[in-house]
Amino acid sequence: MEKQELIDFCLSLGPTYVDYPFKKNDGSTDTTVVRHLKNKKIFALISERPKDKKDPLKEEVDLIIALKQKPELSEELRENFKAIEPAWHVNKTHWNDVYINSDMEDESIQKLISQSYELIRPKK
User: Fold this and answer.
1) 31 torsion bin: left (phi>0), alpha (psi -120 to 50), beta (else)
2) Cα separation of 121 and 15, whole Å?
3) CA proximity to 39, closest of 15, 23, 66
4) How far apart are CA 69 and CA 95, in angstroms?
5) Which domain of life is it from (predicted)?
6) In the predicted model, what is the mean pLDDT of residues 7-35?
7) Residue 3, SS3?
């Protein structure tokens, strides 16, 4: 999956919008935040990070989406998929980083995105 495909899928789930609250002025790629329209809660953070953390100026990057999950599911996913790690800069109990184009199928990633959306959407 590509970044725009992730964004499009997130936006297809319901009343959602894209936000860029962490704007960078150095020309690097901004983190794309996807929120619910009514309660403004975040359910996905899409970013690109250097593959080589020791040399961040190299052009190779990982595409990563941070998703909210139930704590018991978060642990299970981390144990079963190399593509999933505790999220960076958010609550690691409730959030996972999913490395795109790793060992998870696109359909499984879409399912996780949908689950994240369901956790934050307003209850009637």
Assistant:
1) beta
2) 9
3) 15
4) 6
5) Bacteria
6) 87
7) helix
Tens digit of each residue's pLDDT (9 = 90 or more) over 59-110: 788 899 999 999 999 989 999 999 999 998 888 889 999 999 888 999 999 9
The rounded distance, in Å, linking the Cα atoms of 31 and 42 is 12
3-class secondary structure, 116: helix
CA distance 3 to 111: 16
* pLDDT for 111: 97
Closest among 65, 45, 51 to 1, alpha carbons compared: 65
Side chain identity at residue 73, one-letter code: L
- Coil, strand or helix: which one is 36? strand
Tell me the whole-structure pTM to 2 decimals: 0.88
CATH of domain 3-120: 3.90.1150.30
* Number of residues that make up the chain: 124
Q: What letter does residue 14 receive in the DSSP assignment?
A: S
- Please provide the distance, in angstroms rounded to a whole number, between the alpha carbons at the two ends of the chain: 33
